[in-house]
Amino acid sequence: MKKQTQKGEIKMKEHTTVICSKCKRRFRLNQTVKVIGSKRRICRGCLSNLSYYTPNNKMVNKPTKKGTTYGFELECVPKTPQHKAYIINTLTDLIATDDGSLPSGGVEFKTPIYNSLRGVKQMLETMCKHADFSNEKCGQHMNIGNGTYINEYSINIIKNFAPNLFDDLYDYMYEHKEETVKLCGRFFNGYVSRDYGYSDHYSWIGLSHDNRIEFRISKLQTVEQYLLLAKMWEEMLFCIINDLIKPYNLHIPRGERAKVKNIIIEEKAKNISVKLIKIFNKYVKILNNKIILDK
Question: What angle in degrees, to the nearest 10, is found between the helix axes of 162-175 and 152-160?
Answer without folding.
Answer: 60
